[in-house]
Write a structure and sequence with these properties.
- By secondary structure, the protein is of the alpha/beta class.
- The protein folds into two domains: 160 residues, Glycogen Phosphorylase B (Rossmann fold); 159 residues, Glycogen Phosphorylase B (Rossmann fold, 3-Layer(aba) Sandwich), CATH 3.40.50.
- Helix content is 34%, strand content 17%.
- The chain contains twelve helices and 13 strands.
- The strands form two sheets. A seven-stranded parallel β-sheet has the order 3-2-1-4-5-6-7, sandwiched between helices.
- The longest helix has 14 residues.
- The termini are close together.
């Protein structure tokens, strides 16, 4: 293909907007095309991130996406070349052959029209190099980390909960919520508690949180502004919260197989925080984790350094540098 005049972006969910926004805003004006979104609610959400978005329409420009689903949507809109950015920590489920090649995760199938992968760590990069050997792969960290808000002054300690959605890709992708549901209300007797969750599960979780006397908090930025500790099963938000220097608690479930090694959350990076297996231990573990002992801080920093190439800042600039390098590649120059 010839060197593109513009690059478009496409995001169909709020958290995809959040992950793409730092890279989009780092892109030179003369390269930035249109930021396309699925509906007008996302137009408003993007505006809150400083982006002028428009409802999705047809395009022939290369497209920046943060999910496999949006890559498929982009194809239907006419895009033929993609820049794919991980919308999390690069978690994949390669420890089981049945889930190893799912297109939504690093190393998945049906991604041959991706020209450049922007990934947070070497594990995700190595899987894409094998799956798509003709694509460029750049380890840039997570651009979203560049914009994470700090804890704002206020009473504490505040404990936030977060649960993944009931994803059927692998047992480890499922939410641990059913395992802990009966014990969650007990946290309100000792702590001020906020309730968060994956956007695809938050509707159901919000009803439960309200019934348990817990304030639902939809936007993870608000969790970061208000919470001193984050309790979560399986989400990139677990590592994002830890990257701000605050403690986390990792929730395990009986269906998370200890003998299956997917990497990252399962199980190399699970030591990012105190781990819980038995719901009866939840409150006690939360209390211990709030103390944030030195050994746990040291281990958290070690894990975050392995999960993110740039755990503090600079990932958006690194991503833009990778895009510029792709645009200047000999293959594109020869075709121009």
């Amino acid at each position: 293909m010839t060197r593109p005049a513009r690059i478009d972006a496409l995001a169909s969910e709020r958290h995809f907007v959040d992950h793409l926004a730092p890279v989009w805003l780092a892109m030179p004006d003369d390269l930035r095309g249109r930021f396309l979104v699925a509906d007008r609610t996302l137009v408003r959400h993007a505006a809150g991130r400083g982006i002028e978005a428009v409802p999705a329409t047809r395009t022939s420009n290369p497209m920046l996406v943060a999910s496999y689903g949006d890559q498929m949507r982009g194809r239907r809109l006419g895009a033929r070349t993609f820049i794919s950015m991980e919308h999390g920590a690069g978690q994949s489920y390669g420890g089981d052959p049945r889930s190893a090649r799912h297109g939504s995760y690093a190393g998945g199938r049906d991604r041959d029209d991706t020209a450049l992968f922007l990934v947070p760590n070497e594990q995700a990069a190595s899987r894409w190099r094998v799956a798509c050997p003709t694509a460029d792969v750049a380890v840039v960290g997570s651009p979203k980390l560049d914009t994470l808000p700090a804890r704002e002054p206020g009473p504490g300690p505040v404990v936030a909960l977060g649960f993944h959605w009931p994803c059927a890709i692998a047992p480890e992708a499922r939410t641990a919520f059913p395992h802990y549901r009966s014990m969650v209300p007990s946290l309100t007797r000792g702590f001020r508690v906020l309730g968060h969750g994956h956007p695809r599960f938050m509707g159901r979780l919000s009803s439960f949180y309200r019934s348990a006397g817990i304030e639902p908090v939809e936007d993870f930025d608000d969790v970061l502004r208000r919470a001193d500790l984050y309790v979560c099963d399986n989400s990139s938000t677990l590592f994002e919260f830890a990257a701000t220097g605050r403690p986390v608690v990792v929730l395990d479930a009986p269906w998370y197989r200890r003998d299956v090694q997917h990497g990252l959350r399962f199980w190399d990076a699970a030591t990012v925080g105190f781990q819980v297996d038995d719901p009866a231990d939840l409150a006690g573990t939360v209390e211990a984790a709030l103390g944030d002992p030195p050994w746990q801080r040291t281990e958290r920093e070690r894990v975050i350094a392995s999960v993110y190439a740039r755990p503090v800042e600079g990932a958006a600039r690194a991503a833009m540098d990778a895009i510029a390098a792709w645009l200047a590649s000999p293959a594109l120059k020869a075709a121009a």
